[in-house]
Amino acid sequence: MKRVMNREKNTTPEIGFRVERAGPLAQLEDAGRFGVRRLGVTQGGPADLHGWAWANRLAGNPWGAAALEITFGGLTLVAERDLTLAVAGADLGATLDGKPLPLWERVSCREGQRLIFAAPANGLRAYLAVAGGFAAEPVLGSVACVVREGLGGFDGRGSKLAEGDRLAVGNRLAAEAPSSAGASLTAAPDEARIDYRATASLSLLPGAQVADFSGQSLFQAFNEAWHVDDRADRMGVRLTGPRLQCRIGSMVSEGIGLGAVQVPPDGQPIALLNDRQTIGGYPRLGALTPLAASRLAQCLPGQEVRLKAVSSEGALQAYRRFCATFFTDSGR
Asked: 148, 180, 195, 196 - which has most CB atoms within 10 Å?
């Protein structure tokens, strides 16, 4: 059965793409689902906030617009009308009618053209935004797709894309003319384009239990290399490396925020991402900053990463600089 979802009940959906081939995982993500963790519902949202935000800005969309997160590639879309779009984040070998698709740039796509995402060449997750934003009915205030919880996405039930799906976008006027907030910018500056193949330096705010780790473990945590394990998804990423030791054997479960780095008894940290559980009972080394969590979400299994302790003031300043790019008309 073909699924067509619309964001507003009183607006006829405009079909933007038809899914010809679904690939392993492609799903709709807006900024996330907030204010519901007390109900046991996680936030969802883009695993790579940086790539998602730039794709939307280049497409001329306001902050929070829904974009498509494409993991590993394997997705083929056919345009059902003329569209303005942008792809940012990972290089998944995207082509438009067989020609390489420019990344981190605004692109025009004509009706009937075929957009194909092949396989990871640089990074893991690409973000496709269209002018006007993808349209779906919000669930608990958001269209963010969380497969594990069966919430959000194009069908409202947390389903990843399937062959034959037809993807609705915002109204025709919005889709044909990018909003004034991003209309002056057609390509991201060089400093915004990340080489995801390089060793990632991940900023981490030390947590409440950091003093309970041995001195040797703390030295190793911030001075030795870690590698991304193949046990990684939108819920969390396991890191392999030195075995960290903590004096806390067990603790009462407490709330878990984005980027929390839990250390289970085997001493191998787990960094929790957007689809994490809402509470956890392992001691925490600290929490990755939102941009560090985004960077980790683009790492392939086996890739080397390093942890870097930062202060709350430094982390806040860095995040404010990032947000200023998307919440000012000038982008400065």
From this structure: 196
3-class secondary structure per residue, 221-282 = HHHCCEEEEEEECCCEEEEECCCCCECCCCCCCEECCCCEEECCCCCCCEEECCCCCCEECC
pTM of the model: 0.92
List C-alpha distances in Å: 92 to 29, 43, 73, 161, 287: 18, 26, 6, 17, 29
Name residue, tokens 């940012």.
88
Tokens 């984005």 locate to: 258
* Secondary structure of residue 55 in the 3-state scheme: helix
Within 13 A of 277's CA, how many CA atoms are on the CB side? Answer: 9
CB 157 within 8 A of CB 150: yes
What contacts 1, CB < 8 A, 6 or more positions away?
none
Q: Residue 259: how many CB atoms within 10 A of its CB?
A: 25
3-state secondary structure of 85: strand
**Distance in angstroms (rounded) separating the CA atoms of residues 240 and 171:** 47
8 Å CB contact between 172 and 14: yes
Asked if 99 contacts 65 with a C-beta cutoff of 8 angstroms, the reply is: no
Smallest CA-to-CA distance from 231 within 223, 240, 222 is with 240
Question: What is the rounded CA–CA span in Å between residue 303 and residue 229?
Answer: 8
Q: Which residues pair with 28 in a beta bridge?
A: 68
CB contact at 8 A, 63 and 327: yes
Nearest-angstrom CA–CA distance, 261 and 268: 10
pLDDT in tens, 279-302: 999 999 999 999 999 999 999 999
Closest to 32 (Cα-Cα) out of 21, 22, 23, 41: 41
Write out pLDDT tens, residues 100-154. Answer: 999 999 999 999 999 999 999 999 999 999 999 999 999 999 999 999 999 999 9
The four Cα atoms 252, 256, 261, 262 give a dihedral, to 10 degrees, of 30
According to DSSP, residue 157 is labeled B
